[in-house]
Amino acid sequence: MSEDIEQRPHAQCHTCHLVVGVPEGPIHGLACPRCHTRLHRRKPNSLARTWALLISAIICYVPANLYPVMEVTTLGRPQADTIVSGVIYLALHGTWPLAVIVFIASVVVPVLKIVSLGWLAFSVQTRSQWRPRDRARLYRVVEAVGRWSMVDVYVVTILVALVHLGSLASVEARVGAFYFGAVVVLTMLAAASFDPRLIWDAMIEDAEASEGERDGG
Fold first, then answer.
1. Is 39 within 8 Å of 15 (Cβ atoms)?
2. pLDDT per residue over 84-95, tens digit each?
3. If exposure means fewest CB atoms within 10 Å of the residue's CB, which of 36, 68, 114, 145 is most exposed?
4. d(Cα 46, Cα 43) in Å, to the nearest integer?
5. Closest by Cα among 48, 202, 54 to 126
6. Taking residues 50-71, what's their average pLDDT?
7. Are 35 and 13 in contact (CB under 8 A)?
8. Does domain 45-216 have CATH number 1.20.140?
9. Domain segments of the chain: what residues?
10. CB atoms within 10 A of CB 166
11. Percent of the chain residues past pLDDT 70, beyond the cut
């Protein structure tokens, strides 16, 4: 009995992540016994949704770097900074550790995440079989570190909430912060939409086809 259960096909619920035993063949109409979400062997329209979210993130990334993310007013003199100019300002004033953290979290991580997810989606779409284990590891890394891009948004939010000294000193969020937050959210949704099991599907299908040809021959 236990061997039958172990050999039975399984599907993971995309909502609560419960692993559920399913019958062979199509599983249309089956629902998760815990959260009652419809079950699918793979995330529906995974590649299409990933590409749509990535393209939206790329579009938002341009104004996120062109427009200022915050405006600091000191003694009545306002100064608006973009992400890059903020990093330069921090570096010029000797706060190198903070400048490096902001640069990595707000510039390097979003770019690498967009490039990595785009390459993973492209490799799946072209049915690439190149190092599937390493591509799966890359996806796990991207999924884990992507949320740290929010550090810049957190800094702006904290400063806006804390600094209220009238004309002496004040901090206000600008439109760049909105676009940058949109980039972070869109890339996180793109990572959640991508199904890493698709990385292995082309290799498994080709192996089954080769085995079928040998059996037929």
1. no
2. 887 887 787 777
3. 36
4. 5
5. 202
6. 90
7. yes
8. yes
9. 1-41, 45-216
10. 8
11. 73
